[in-house]
Amino acid sequence: MGERSWYVAGRTAGLMLRLWRTMIRVENRNSGVRRAPYVLALWHGRVIPNMMDNYDCGSVTMASRSNDGALAAGIVDQLGLIATRGSTSRSGKQALEEMEEKVRSGEAPFAALTVDGPRGPWRKVKAGIVTLALRLQVPLIPITSSCRRAWVLRSWDHMVLPKPFTKVVVAYGEPWSPERLSGPLPAVLSGIEADMNALTAALDREVAGRELWPPG
What we know:
Blueprint: H1 3-21, E1 25-29, E2 39-42, H2 47-51, E3 60-63, H3 67-78, E4 82-85, H4 92-104, E5 111-114, H5 128-136, E6 140-147, E7 150-152, E8 160-162, E9 167-172, H6 178-181, H7 185-207
Parallel strand pairs: 1-9, 2-5, 2-6, 3-4
Antiparallel strand pairs: 6-9, 7-8
Helix pairs in contact: 1-3, 4-5
């Protein structure tokens, strides 16, 4: 299959996700911290439940230039979001510039990035999202989610998929201001990582009754 076929498959998958969403109760926490424009930082393995609180919001994200990325772009477009194409290894700089332009122009109210995507290392925050937030001079907001009942796949990202008729809770962490993001990069990345891991673990214990992922 070529990229076009993968994109069409993604559009079909997006329709299935919309149907899936109708069978799930979604609750959000601390959503008042979201004041556009901003950037959302999320783990790749929680992207499906995270998106369930953000369908049709017009935000911009990134999909890799690969067949997997074409599939993801089709899903994103079908769910009312915007996909730029690139990754940390291929065309990432251009894709970040496109994301910046769409937020700066007002075409997208905010940007969202899987900070450990597209292929890991798992739960290791990469610098691209900090670069984007600093260029836009907007806050970075961690986002995570958990499910009362879920499947956890044996993929590199331990993808969490909510089971039908379950409850999904999407939680937003405290924002990182541009001033805080301007600190030494290794410390900033490890701090964001720690915040996201702590938020995810606490939410899992509350909602699922256990941590869905092993300690990071």
